[in-house]
Specification:
By secondary structure, the chain is mainly alpha-helical. 71% of the residues lie in helices and 0% in strands. α3 crosses α4.
Amino acid sequence: MPNIAQLLKDEISRLARKEVRAASAPLQEQIRELKKTNRQQREAIDALQRRVGQLQALASSPTDKILKAPAIAEDRQIRLSGTSIKKHRKRLGLSQGELGQLLNVSTNTIVRWEQNKSKPREAYRAGIAQLRTMGVREVKKLLASVQ
């Protein structure tokens, strides 16, 4: 013969669990949404902190140039000609204005370099040398961060 007290206790426990689940389901959904929002905000904060770091690095640059080439030895001369500057600019898919933005010079300066009417100063030669080692994606990403 079944134990009536035990059956009642089991049924009451089952119904209580069901009611607790029903009552806590909206709260659990709200917790999930809050965690998702929190994660998105942390990612946004991280992205903003990276951007602030980039801007601080640009602001603290002693020569105010965008590109630097720290790996180039001081005694090594960089051979540049107007045609090589133009060739690398075209390879990277940059306009003269965009290259000027990256190097922090005017478009007219780039035109004069490419026509061999003037030569880049030493500070800009390092940036041009760095551009020669970069790919199209890197340059586009760098250009987007400058604008």
